[in-house]
């Protein structure tokens, strides 16, 4: 039987703290790098034209991913306690799991919005009018919707730069979504019993062995 004072039990507990098992440090670093990249790129897109919608400049997704990585780094500063013996440790882990899920949803939405806008851009016919760039999907339709990009006199440079930024946003947010999904999977797999049971199976086995001995 195993007790908390046994060397084997201590070795098992230590095995949970090695090579990122205590916390996937690589995921936190990737989330921070991707979050900063998405945020900076989103603000750069917002600077191209003042008429771009918030959904088309997904800096909000990058900010959420950065917040997730910061929670992860806070987790590294907390002393490891087996079986979630400290309330703050469990709270931070649960917060990281939920924020990673939120970051996953935000990044998927950002990819969807960027892909939709990019597909529209490939079908646009644009003309420069005054200090704006006006684009239409179907020039033959007089009632067709007109997309106006303010503060953009050169439609050629606007469309080429915006297409590049949208492609980068799709790639970066897709990678960030995969990283957040992987982080959720690692947290779920590593601490599945903790989220729902709160104890491990081997203490129950030890208790049953003690009862049989008695």
From TrEMBL:
Membrane disposition: Multi-pass membrane protein
Keyword GTP-binding: no
One Pfam family this sequence matches: CD20
Keywords for this protein: Membrane, Transmembrane, Transmembrane helix
Stored InterPro entries: CD20-like, Sarcospan
Subcellular location field: Membrane
Coiled coil: none
Chain segments annotated as transmembrane: 25-48, 60-82, 94-115, 166-188
Highest taxon listed in the record's lineage: Eukaryota
GO cellular component, one term: dystrophin-associated glycoprotein complex
UniProt KW Transmembrane helix keyword: yes
Entries under PANTHER family matching the protein: SARCOSPAN (PTHR15260:SF1)
Protein name, entry field: Sarcospan
Organism: Apaloderma vittatum
């Amino acid at each position: 039987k195993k007790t908390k004072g046994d060397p084997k039990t201590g070795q098992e507990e230590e095995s949970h703290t090695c090579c990122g098992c205590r916390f996937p440090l690589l995921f936190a670093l990737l989330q921070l790098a991707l979050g900063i990249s998405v945020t900076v790129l989103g603000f750069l897109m917002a600077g191209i034209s003042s008429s771009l919608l918030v959904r088309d400049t997904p800096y909000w997704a990058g900010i959420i991913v950065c917040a997730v990585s910061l929670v992860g780094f806070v987790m590294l500063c907390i002393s490891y306690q087996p079986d979630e013996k400290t309330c703050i440790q469990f709270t931070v882990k649960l917060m990281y799991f939920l924020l990673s899920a939120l970051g996953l949803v935000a990044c998927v939405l950002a990819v969807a919005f960027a892909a939709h806008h990019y597909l529209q851009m490939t079908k646009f016919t644009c003309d420069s009018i005054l200090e704006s760039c006006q684009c239409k999907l179907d020039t033959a339709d007089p009632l067709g919707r007109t997309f106006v990009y303010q503060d953009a006199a050169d439609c050629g440079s606007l469309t080429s730069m915006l297409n590049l930024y949208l492609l980068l946003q799709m790639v970066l947010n897709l990678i960030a979504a995969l990283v957040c999904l992987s982080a959720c999977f690692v947290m779920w797999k590593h601490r599945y019993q903790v989220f729902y049971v709160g104890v491990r199976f081997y203490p129950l086995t030890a208790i049953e062995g003690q009862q049989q001995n008695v």
